[in-house]
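for the record, two folds in this file. i put them one after another cuz i was lazy. first one right below, seq on top, structure tokens after. the second one comes after a little note so u can tell where it starts
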Amino acid sequence: MGTWRSRFESLVVTAVRRHLEVDLVTDLEDVDATDVRAITRLYQVLDRRPVYSVGLDHIVETVDQHYARASPKPLTRRLLASLLDETGGHFEELGRAQEAAQCRRIAAELAPGGPDRTILYLVSAISSQQQLYVLGSLTVDAVLRALLHEVGRSGRRIRRAKILGAVAYAAHTTGNAERLRGAVEALAAAADTPGYQALVTYYRSRLLIAGGRIDEGLAAEREFSRAAAVIGPKDRAHQMVASALASTTPHDSAMAHASEAALRGDHVGASGWYGRSAEELPAGPFRSAMRLFAEAARVNGGLLPSANALRECLSRLCADNLFAARTVTDVELLLTGLLMRAVDLHEAGHDAEIVAELADFLGEFRGGTAVGRPQDSGAYDTDARADMTLVDFLARTTAPVTPAEITHALPGHHVVWVNVTGAEVGEHCLTVVTLRPSHPVPLVRRTHVSAADGKALAQCLGEDSEDAPAEAVRRISGLFFADLDPDAAGARILVVPDSVTWAMPWNELAPHGAADLTISMSAGAALRTRPAPAVVVPRVIGIFDETELEGSRLEARALEQLDAQGHIRFTRVHSLAELHDALEAAPYDILTVSVHGTQSDGFEYRMLLPDGPSSPAALLRLGLPRVVVLGCCWSAKSTERADTTAAALSCLVAGASQVVGGLWAIDDELAGRLLADTYDRHLRRGVPLPQALRQAHLALPPDLRPGAAGLAFIGRG
């Protein structure tokens, strides 16, 4: 019976392909695969809560810009139609009926026949005959995400439970926990036979185990095994249940042995089997994930007893391109575990260098690896392609840098890595690693965050820091900078914050005598970035919103005066197209963008230019000068997801060396006043830009400085 079913399903898939012109994901040409991955990125806008209006606008604009004049293949058209239909639903929730109707109209033109026909296309793309794990994880995710939407609005003829079972299988076999969670929730509501109800239990057990709740996961697995034993062949889910039941018992594949060993707590065995599984797979995200699981098992099994063992672990991760796994699983969790293991070893008497190397490697994962890499030509013709290129930059492999390399390349700098770890209240730790120019060995300080420390830290985060009590600022400053050289007057400080501490008032927290303070994703990124050259008469180009922003007027007026005095040559433009043409026509030394910025996260973020909104991805398409000043709210914020980025990072990826950006919403008049003084010091008096910004900040009246601290210097000082 099973053989007959398999042959019949194969015939159905073949017929669907022939009669409906369906292209399997593996048949897509490279450009179409890029399109499908870009669609996944747009779906991520809808997956966030709340869904911002500018995010919905970004979806429509990207589809219009990137696909309107193209002739995408049938599968790509169906994915776009599903994306637009769901976008239309969100527009309706926001009361924007006209935009909702436009989305639905375009969706109907792209995919006639409604959701049932679309489901046939999409199911064929994830047929069980394909080895989905060898495909790009974002490519598969686009299909799964669209299927979950289409099943929700399908007709009576579609057996929802069967489709959702296929989605759950595809999500599970490609390590996509987020999509598996959505499929399980939907399957629980649609399950109409005991077999499908058993499948819900099985996939819940996988989610529990993946989340570290091993005992609960094993209990759910035993419950599934009992239920599966009585599922007969007449149950429509019989074959799926039998396949799932087989996966709960050991068999011959390395991956199965690894899973079985991990479930019984044999971390040593799991490490070996996961490593063998990685060797059996082709290069790509899933191979990288298997390598990551192997090293995670080494951490859990106590197999990393020395600094050298940690370095060997890092070498293995880099050899299999660890960062490619960022679209499959939680890379940061493993790296944080390695960092904490390194701190444990240091406190037990081992060397401190490995702690600094791992702290910086974490920064590389959070975005540093995208900086200072050669760009691929021709990849930025649209925002959709530019955004996908940035994801690829974030996933590029890198190698840890040593403290000796940092001290050699950044002489005279104090480098400070800041990481907050801990999931439970009362269990948070602050780990600060300080590399001083006077001493080549890093100083490591791990502090258990007390209630008073936690309160002060919260008061100094983001926009709330503008109202932070002076005592809270002093307390956090003392925690972060306790290990600077005692005679650090005039010190140059490079801080590598984690995502928790990124948006902090760094110019307020820095010791008063510090000459400048720069923040960077990683020291490795700073080392790869070429310094901005000194220029006798810099060429400055700017785009401003002088209609609504008093600060923009102050900034433009300051630059006009410097131009009139002969200190700079100043060009003003009024649109993104003008800016693009000007940067193509002549070299510039400084670009300043002084406009509103939106609060939304990642690639939905918008700079509201005079001619219309523009995304950070658009910056990748410009020939940027070495220095970029983004006088825009939130232009330098830390993103909420590991595969999105702020505008400031886009500038650094596009070739800038130094970026001034807004960590939160800053008063525009205060920002304009601060930048006008910074320009005077830098462009008229010749003070290097990071020192000029620091001096301008300290020159403000004390009551204004906290509000101005949201403008930060990022990159290489």
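(here's the note) second protein begins now
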Amino acid sequence: MGRVRGWTGNRRMALPMVAGGAVVLGLGGLYVTGLVAGGDVDQGTRVRGVDIGGMTVAQARQALDRELGPTAAAPVAMKIGDRVEKADPAALGLSLDTEATADRAVRKGYDPVTVIGGLFASGERDVEPVIRADEDKGRAEVDRIAETTARAPRDGAIAFEKGAAKAVTPLPGVTLVEDRALTTLRDSYLRTDTSPVVLPVERTEPAVGAEETGRAMKQFAQPAMSGPVALTVAGKSMSITPAVLGEHLKMRADAQGRLVPALDSKGLLADPAVARPIEEVSRPPLDAAPHVGPDGTVVLAQQSRAGRKVTEDALGKAVLPLLTRTGPARSGEVATVAVQPELTSEAARLGIKEKMSSFTVEFPAAPYRSTNIGRAVELINGSVVQPGKEWSFNRTVGERTKENGFVDGIMINDGQYVKSPGGGVSAVATTMYNAMFFAGLKPVEHGAHSFYIERYPEGREATVAWGTLDLRWINDSGHPVYIQAQSTDTSLTITLLGTKKYDEIRATKGPRSNITPPAKRTGTGPTCEVQTPLEGFDVTVGRVFVQGGKEVRSEEFKTHYTPRDEVVCTPETPGATQSPAPTGQAAPAPSGHPRRPPQRGGRTRLVLSDGGERGVTLPARIVHAGSHGGPEVLQLGS
């Protein structure tokens, strides 16, 4: 009995022990299995849709590099207002840290409960990626993007092109909000949505919106271009097409933001389509033309006459109201105004009584001189200088260009003769200076040539240069001065008519001083001009004013002349010689210079630019040929 009891008791105790041992053994196996097969990351773990559950840290990092790496490196598309821009993530300071992301995804511990629980977990866990942001780089790139994408507001406007009105759509101004933009970019990095990231902006509405633009189109612009306008000028009809009108028509916003029309009346009046018909009916004023008669008295060869013209203001007042009308109502009359002549017959009779002065300059004939002097004379002749007003050579003659009627000639530059546009007009300046000098008028600006030219009076000559040197004088006679200018191929005369302020003007001249000998230079090339030598010197000239037989005042003018160096022109190619001219001819030379004879001794003819001929016996060597001052000179040497 005792044995049976003992067995029974032991059996009862053994069964629970066996069962407990089996459980322990089972859990231990699961724990080991979890450690071996479960990996570092729990099942169901994902990073932006990439499943890394059950992976080791190294496997998870490789998966993230493979799946998210391309997306992390792809350009970031951004919408800024209505523009789409792209930027490199590295430039924005953004990058994906896959190592830190994998570390974040691993289980929290390795105790049995955590490990065994990971084997039986059936839920999903999303882990956010670790994103690195470089603050300085990000702000610098956002600053750049803000600057390049900023847009000022564009007002609505009306454009007129080829006779049609076109509306310019208004657009709001757009400015990127930089601080919020940087945060938005970081939050949107690595998102699965491929559409551009909408960045925060501030908008500035235009002053002229779509509603005002539409109103201006309907009420003015479209009617303005609906057809031509018909005008009557001095009884003659003309029309202006929409295309011509549109060239000179604009609409501008006023202070209240309303688009109002603005007509460029000056441009419209100058437009050939308008100017030509208006010129046909306009009548320019006609100045009185004083003339010195055979007995020395001044008579009027031409009476003055008032003219009529259309002003810019009158044209604008006639055209602008017609632009919103239709049909026959788009017609009107343009008023003309009287234009008085600069010199009326009455003023001429009262103030231009006598010849104040007259001066003539002679010069060697040359085609360029005839052209340039003749053109300057044409522009000067008939000029009227009212009392107290200034006369200017450059304002009257204008720039010496081909378009203004001038050709290349010979001028002085850096102490040497060179080819230059308008060469020869210094003869006109010198003639005018002397006419002003002997009329007793007040000089304002003048300058002499750098070296002396023999055909001009010492110290009483002038030159001009566009933009740097002018010849200007003021009419201080108290009466109008009328300028007469005329020229031939070899001479130029300027006469001033008016009322003398002094009975007589006398000129004085002192001796030359500070004598400086010339040097010698050699030039080459087609622009080289031969030049005879002449000493440099200083000279003082005076002007004495005589009234009632007495000297009432005097003044002096000092002039410094640099030496005129001798310039010899040689062939451009070393060793080259000039070919002898055919028998009976001389080699070509620039106009205004004697033509160069053959460089051999013997008898030949020297043909001068003035048409004359001289027979000379040439020595073995020519020292120099040609002159710009006085008679043409051939200078010879042994």
